[in-house]
């Protein structure tokens, strides 16, 4: 999926903002979770955030998925010309 050309800057800025926000929030949240000197809650937090990110990305970013028809089209003339050029360069 691509962003429209006129929104490329806005899209990139939003993605960078979200990435930087998570890099600020994660150590703070883990610091609160590890108050009893056990990292068990932190080991539960990280997979939960990962799964939430996957689900939100799928819900908002992935559009309708359609099967691509399996068709192989061979341009024989282009293939023969390319082979001839390659053999000429190898012989030279």
Which short descriptors sum up this protein?
single chain, 92 residues, 70% helix, 0% strand
Question: Could you outline the blueprint of secondary structure elements for this entry?
Answer:
Elements: H1 8-33, H2 40-61, H3 76-91
Summarize the structure.
70% of the residues lie in helices and 0% in strands.
Structure overview:
- The structure is a single chain.
- The protein is an all-alpha fold and about 90 residues long.
- It is built from 3 helices and no strands.
- It has one domain.
- It has helices at about 10-35, 40-60, 75-90.
- The longest helix has 26 residues, at about 10-35.
- The radius of gyration is 25 Å and the shape is elongated.
What structural class do helix, strand and pairing data support? mainly alpha
Largest sheet: none
What is the H-and-E element order?
A: HHH
**Tally of separate helices:** 3
Overall pLDDT, averaged?
Answer: 83
Radius of gyration: 25 Å
3D shape: elongated
């Amino acid at each position: 999926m691509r962003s429209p050309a006129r929104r490329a800057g806005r899209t990139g800025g939003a993605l960078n903002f979200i990435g930087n926000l998570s890099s600020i929030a994660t150590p703070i949240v883990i610091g609160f979770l590890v108050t009893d000197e056990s990292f068990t809650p932190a080991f539960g937090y990280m997979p939960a955030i990962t799964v939430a990110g996957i689900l939100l990305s799928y819900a908002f970013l992935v559009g309708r998925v359609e099967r691509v028809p399996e068709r192989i089209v061979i341009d024989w003339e282009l293939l023969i010309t390319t082979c001839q050029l390659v053999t000429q360069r190898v012989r030279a």
